[in-house]
C-alpha cells in the first residue's frame, strides 16, 4: 500500500549535456546524516519486526521525507499584500505485503470492509533522531495495518473464486535497480527583503500606467530536499527547486475589461533577479498591448479547419494532444476487482494506447523521445530535468515514445501495466498548490520531424489548405510575447485571398486529442524551447485566462524542445458571446 501526502530537420546537430549522476553517497551534512539514519533504522526495524494478527508481513517498505522551505510574496501597485515564509516536512510511505507478483496494491473489493488507516501524522521539523523515528514508526504502523488487511482480503477472494495466484495477468510491482545517489543543493533562497524589494519594484511600475485598474506581481519559491530509502537498499538525497514569478494586469478600456499575464519559471531564483530589466520591458509591452486587444473584433461563428500554431501555442497544442483524456502517453494499470455479483475481473482500460504499442498512432513525419536527465538545451536550462524519480528509479537517458509516428512505449513507474511492465523512471514529483505529490509525467520531451518548412512556407500551406476546404479565412495562434517565459495566447484571423491578419477575440479552441495528430502535420525547421508545468491549463486564448493566475506551482515541471510552428488540419473553434454587463469600479482609480 502506498500513502502519499503532500526538431526538426534530421541533420540537426544536438548539443546535449546530461546530468552526471553520482553512484556513491558523499558530502552529507550533519542534518542529512541524522535524518537519513532515522529513516533507515526505522524502515529496517519494521521490515523485520512488524506483524499484525496472522496477516502477512511486508516484503517491501519505502519512505520519503520531503524537507520543504517555501517563500511567497505578492504585491499590487507597489504595496506588499502577502508575505510568508514557511518550513515544513511532508512524507510518502509505501508498504507492500506479499511479493512482487501479487501484493496488496491494484485491488478493489466490494465484498469486504475497506481497511482504514489511522489518520494523518506529521513529522517533526527538528532534525531530532528519536523524534523522526517515532513519527516514522507510527506512519509505517498505520500504512502496514491497511496494507496487510487489503492483502488478506485479496488472498481470500482468490481462494473463494478458486483462482490460482499464478493466473493473474498483470504483476503488481516491478523490480528496479538499487540506486545510491546523494546530491546537495546548489541553490539558496534569497533574503526575504530582496524578494520583497523585487516584487515591490515590479508592481510599482503599474502606478505610472493610468489605464491599469488592477495589477498583481507574485513570487513563489519552493526549495526542498528529498530523502528516499527503500528496503531494496536504495539510498537517495537530492534537491528540488522551482521559482515562479507571475504578473497579472487588468484594465477597463472603452467600457470593456481586458486582462493579460506573464509568468517566469526558473530553478534558480537568481535568474529571475538577473532578468529584472527585461521583465520591466515585457510589463510595459503587455500593458500597452491591452489597448490593441480591446479594439479587436469578436468572432461570430464557429470554425472547423486548419490552424497554424506558433512557439508557446505550438508546444501547448502538442501537450494537449499527447496528454489529454482518455488516450494519452501515461501507462494505465487495470485494477483487479472483486464485486459481490461477479467473479474477479480486471477493470476496463480507459487508455486505448495501451493496445497500440508498435503501431502507427501519429503522423509518420514525427518522432518523439524524452531525455529526462538532459540539463540544458544549448544555453537554456531545462525545467523538466530530474536525476531520479519519486520511486527511486533513474530515468532512461533517451526514452523513445514515437519513432516515425509509431508508438514505442508509454510513461510509467513501478506499477506494471499490460504493455509497459517495468518502470522507465517517470513517477515524477509534481505540485498541487505547492504541495509535493507523485504522479506519472514527462521530463524533457524532444519532438523532431523528417520534413520541415520555413515559417513563411507554413503560412502559405495554411492558406492553401483553407482554400481547398472552401474557407474564406483561417486562423493563427501566437503568444503575446516570445521568450523563455509564459504569456497569453492571441488569435489572428487570416484572409485566404490576401493573407492579411487581424487580431480577434471571443473564440475558444475545442480540446485537441491524439487523433488530431494522426496525419498531415506540417512543422517548421526552427526550434523552440518551452519550460512550464503540465496541467489542464493549455491553449486558452484571450487575455489572462491563457496562463494560470495561480502563483503557486501546479502540475508537473516539464520542458519541450520542438519545431517553432506547426499546422494542424482539423481544429474546431467555437465563439462565445461578449458579456452584456461589464462590472468595473464605480469611481476612477485614485491618483
Give a quick rundown of the structure.
The protein is an alpha+beta fold and 591 residues long.
Distance between the termini: 60 Å
Helix proportion of residues, in percent? Answer: 10-25%
Q: Could you tell me the radius of gyration in angstroms?
A: 26 Å
Mean pLDDT: 89
How many H/I helices? Answer: 7
Q: Give the oligomeric state.
A: single chain
CATH level-1 class of the largest domain: Alpha Beta
CATH architecture of the largest domain: 2-Layer Sandwich
Write the layout of secondary structure elements.
Elements (H helix, E strand, L loop, with lengths): L1 E3 L11 E3 L11 H20 L8 E19 L2 E19 L9 E3 L19 H32 L19 E3 L9 H13 L7 E19 L4 E19 L2 E11 L2 H6 L1 H19 L2 E2 L4 E8 L1 H12 L12 E3 L6 E2 L19 E5 L3 E4 L2 E2 L17 E5 L2 E2 L19 E6 L2 E6 L3 E6 L5 H14 L4 E7 L6 E2 L1 E7 L5 E5 L1 E3 L12 E2 L3 E8 L21 E8 L1 E11 L16
Parallel strand pairs: 5-12, 6-8, 10-25, 11-22, 21-29
Antiparallel strand pairs: 1-4, 2-15, 3-4, 3-7, 7-8, 8-9, 9-23, 11-30, 12-13, 14-17, 14-21, 15-16, 17-18, 19-20, 22-24, 24-25, 26-30, 27-30, 28-29
Helix pairs in contact: 1-2
